[in-house]
Amino acid sequence: MHPIVEGLFQGDRRSLARAISIVDDDEPDSHIILRQIFNKTGNAKTVGFTGAGGAGKSSLIEKLVPAFQDLGYKIAIIAVDPTSPITGGAILGDRIRMRTTMDDQNVFVRSLASRGAKGGISRSVRNVIRILDAAGYGLIIVESVGAGQVEVQISNVVNITAVVLSPQTGDSIQAIKAGLTEVGDLYIINKGDLEGSTSLYNSITDLIGDTTRKPVVIKASAKTGSGIKDVAVNIDKILRSKGDNYRDQEKRMLEVEVRDMVLNMVEEKVSAMLREDNRYHDFIEKIVNKELDPYVAAEQLAAVVLR
Ligand SMILES: Nc1nc2c(ncn2[C@@H]2O[C@H](COP(=O)(O)OP(=O)(O)OP(=O)(O)O)[C@@H](O)[C@H]2O)c(=O)[nH]1
Ligand SMILES: [Mg+2]
């Protein structure tokens, strides 16, 4: 067994941190580690927290930790950094603050840069979840900023998604535009201590309360602590109620994952074949000289490599 895997099974945090780095960076040992831990995975539940920058995701998660611990969960947190260099500094400070408070509480916190490994952030997050799962963490929280596509990707790799909204960082119209009304199993109207939170709560309830999924909408405040326990209890309830659905969900995720892996492998192989094939370079030359059109060339080359 790989020494890092051995350490990880024994609860060594440094081995765990190292395993995550190896997988996130797609280092050579990555596949060995993932293979050796694979049959120890499948027990963890995962919750994504998404929403605009500054909505209060980190603050909420921090407050939710003891509430989840009361419900018996061992917790790990993955924070997916936004790529925006403008807010980078502030967010890093936030992460460090979060990590120090969490370390005292037996919570494992880890940031991943969304530039991420080859194959994109969702693949990286999925593999990091596996590592944490194998290391015995029962509840894995993934924080990702709602920056365009990222939150939609993240919601595809977690069991349930909590969308965090706040009266300061946006209204319901923006939430619709960002596609956030589609992804949530639970909506948290944070900063309930601030003006505007009640009207935001009402408009979000109107907006999504009638959909067939009937997601839960909760008003909370990471600042005062109001509604926090309610959020934890509801997340726990949703996680428990899903039961057999997780198997189907896992199957769908695996279909996409394996297909992507195969496509990656095939793409690499085909690219190499083309590079080394003289016909490819001849065809390009002919296309440039208008002796051949790109469609015929592509079809003929595809036929050659697929043979
Ligand atoms: N008044 C009030 N302020 C809050 C509340 N929750 C968070 N904040 C403040 O809002 C700001 C942003 O909070 P964060 O928890 O860092 O927000 P975030 O969603 O994690 O932000 P990013 O990670 O940058 O996307 C901080 O200054 C918090 O102190 C709340 O319930 N009430
Ligand atoms: Mg944050």
Task: Describe the secondary structure blueprint for this structure.
Blueprint: H1 3-9, H2 13-24, H3 30-37, E1 45-51, H4 57-70, E2 75-81, H5 88-103, E3 108-113, H6 121-134, E4 139-145, H7 149-155, E5 160-165, H8 172-177, H9 180-183, E6 186-189, H10 197-208, E7 216-219, H11 228-242, H12 245-276, H13 278-288, H14 294-306
Bound molecules: guanosine-5'-triphosphate and magnesium ion.
Characterise the protein shown here.
This protein is of the alpha/beta class and 307 residues long. The protein has two domains: 201 residues, 3-Layer(aba) Sandwich (Rossmann fold); 53 residues, no CATH class. The protein contains 14 helices and seven strands. The chain has a seven-stranded parallel β-sheet with strand order 3-2-4-1-5-6-7, with helices on both faces. Helix 1 packs across helix 2, helix 2 crosses helix 3 and helix 4 crosses helix 11.
Continuous helix count: 14
Strand content: 5-15%
Helix content: 55-70%
Termini Cα gap: 40 Å
Please summarize the sheet with the most strands.
7 strands, parallel
The CATH architecture of the largest domain can be named as 3-Layer(aba) Sandwich
Q: Tell how many strands the DSSP assignment holds.
A: 7
SSE ordering: HHHEHEHEHEHEHHEHEHHHH
Structural class: alpha/beta
- Ligands and ions found: guanosine-5'-triphosphate, magnesium ion
Main sheet: which strands, in order across?
A: 3-2-4-1-5-6-7
What is the CATH superfamily classification of the largest domain? P-loop containing nucleotide triphosphate hydrolases
**Average predicted confidence as pLDDT:** 85
CATH-derived topology of the largest domain: Rossmann fold
CATH class identity of the largest domain: Alpha Beta
Structurally, how many domains make up the residues? 2
Which overall shape is indicated by the principal axes computed on the Cα atoms?
globular
Low-confidence stretches at least 5 residues in length (pLDDT < 50)?
84-93
Report the C-alpha radius of gyration, rounded: 23 Å
